[in-house]
Amino acid sequence: MKNRSMFIAPVVVSAIVGFASCVVTPKTYAGEIESGIGSCDVDSPFMGCTWKAKGCDKPVAPVAFASDVESYNRAVTEFNEYLTEVRSYEDCIIAEGKRDIGDKLPDIVTQGAKKQIDEADTELNEARTNLQMMRPQ
């Protein structure tokens, strides 16, 4: 897989600290800035804040079941469709990140995008492993 975190560049944001989230003003961003517990202060080194793509739909791994060659081949086809959906999802995250990174959130966008892509790749690898284990002998 190519390194999808290479799109990183600087971004600026002002924030109003809420009870458990950050509201970014005055711009609207492609992604969302969230807080774990408490508040996040984007004027500090982004302590407690995370960035997450909001317009990208994460695909769900197919439930593979193979009892013979025919069902295994069907599972492979479903997995390949899932692989395509994961790549589109990751491209969407990168595109949203690129839109937001130009406004001064380089670290928070980079870390958030990398986390989402890593999670999708982990699920993809788990699905691949499950499929390989079902391969008929």
Explain this structure.
It is a single chain. By secondary structure, the protein is an alpha+beta fold. The protein has one domain (about 15-135). About 45% of the residues lie in helices and about 15% in strands. It is built from two helices and four strands. The protein has helices spanning about 70-100, 105-135, and strands spanning about 15, 20-25, 30-35, 50-55. The strands form two sheets. It has a two-stranded antiparallel ribbon. It has a two-stranded antiparallel ribbon with strand order 3-4. A hairpin with a 4-residue loop joins strand 1 (about 15) and strand 2. Helix 1 runs antiparallel to helix 2 (about 105-135). The two termini are about 30 Å apart. Residues about 1-25 have low confidence and may be disordered.
